[in-house]
Amino acid sequence: QVQLVESGGGLVQAGGSLRLSCAASGSFFSINSMSWYRQAPGKQRELVASITSGSSTNYEDSVKGRFTISRDNAKNTVYLQMNSLQPEDTAVYYCNAVVRRFGVRAYWGQGTQVTVSS
Known about the structure:
The chain is an all-beta fold and 118 residues long. The protein is 0% helix and 62% strand. It contains no helices and 11 strands.
């Protein structure tokens, strides 16, 4: 089994920063891409940022220049540094990892709440 454990969410004022972490544990051969998604109340879950095993990154347009995704392959951990946070960034943030075990499949974390006050 594979577990993803997120941390780092919380309440911050507009313009502030937060850093999310997601650590993968369990039995697997390797992790391909790792990503952060978010879901605001009444909205669909959307991709925020992703990073491949080779550290190529991709960002949703509204977070470009404000958020930075990175990973530590030795620790099986992905990070999301969020700067210049705005109220519209308020959402539950989910970690996603595409993992190779006896096949390849995606796993999800439990989610961490990020609330940005104006």
